[in-house]
Automatic annotation (TrEMBL):
Keyword Membrane annotated: no
Classification lineage: Eukaryota, Metazoa, Chordata, Craniata, Vertebrata
Organism: Cardinalis cardinalis (Northern cardinal)
Name of the protein described by the UniProt record: 26S proteasome non-ATPase regulatory subunit 9
One Pfam short name: Nas2_N
Residue ranges of domain PDZ in the record: 107-182
InterPro entries: Nas2_N, PDZ, PDZ_6, PDZ_sf, PSMD9
Amino acid sequence: MAEPGGGRPVTVSDVQQLVRRKDEIEAQIKACYELLEGQKGVGMHEPLVDAEGFPRSDIDLYQVRTARHNIICLQNDHKAVMKQVEEALHKLHAREKEKHARDEAEALAEAMSQSQSLPQAFAKVNSVSPGSPASISGLQVDDEIVEFGSVNANNFQNLQNIATVVQHSEGRPLSVTVIRGGRRVHVGLTPKRWAGKGLLGCNIIPLQR
């Protein structure tokens, strides 16, 4: 049987086809051995002549010779198919490994290009009180702030900048953009009085770059 696929990559279907061929050959070999067994248990090597050198008359010599010849041919075919199965499986595994490595490389390249295109953060959320305006808006600990209302990395000088924006925006939603897990996330934050301290209920620290 020719090697599956010729110039194209080996597929799972090719391997299955080879395995079916192997099973067929094994069934044919078994049938030939059964035929020999039916001829007085003559195997592959028992003599086909009697003690005086005459062809045995108690067996069908033609059938025995044909069965023996077929078994030899089929065993060679079986060996060849087994080699093809092994090679096909090896190629299949090698391709899967290559594909996995390529997928990983693409994912890494995408993550790197994303991190390069992300805006610069200037502050970080290091605590959020439960039930606070910050918590209700969806802000999370370790969110890195890239925009807080009108404040961004270009005009941020100190935390007083954020405090001023918060005081002037009490009761009005502020647009806040953060980096979370390597992705940009937008949050609508409304500074207001609540049961706890301050108008936000979160602690923000400047980022040391």
